[in-house]
Amino acid sequence: MGVLSVNMGTRKHYPAELKAKIVLEIFKEEKSIAQIASEYGIHPSVLNRWRNTAVEKLPSLFIDETKNLENMKSEYEKKSKYIL
């Protein structure tokens, strides 16, 4: 199975959607990284790097959500003071 990639010089750049799809496959652990790499024609070390990046950034998704909720709560409280 080939993948859509953009050659910029000597490096290939893959769309974020494809990276996310592949990382989700890795997380499912139904296939080895070597198998997934072979299916997509991407070196296993690249897939390991994508997986590690996803694992590192995963907590920030929830931190940002918490910050957004806190900001919304404080804005609501400010507005409700004006109403009362």
Number of helices: 3
* Helix content percent band: over 70%
* End-to-end separation: 63 Å
Shape: elongated
Cα radius of gyration in angstroms: 20 Å
Across the major sheet, the strand order is: 1-2
- Approximately what portion of the residues adopt beta-strand conformation? 5-15%
GO biological process, one term: DNA transposition
Organism: Neomoorella humiferrea
InterPro entries: Transposase_8, Trp_repressor/repl_initiator, WH-like_DNA-bd_sf
Protein name: Transposase
Per-chain topology:
Blueprint (H helix, E strand, L loop, with lengths): L5 E3 L2 E3 L2 H13 L4 H8 L3 H40 L1
Antiparallel strand pairs: 1-2
GO molecular function: sequence-specific DNA binding; transposase activity
InterPro entries: Transposase_8, Trp_repressor/repl_initiator, WH-like_DNA-bd_sf
Protein name: Transposase
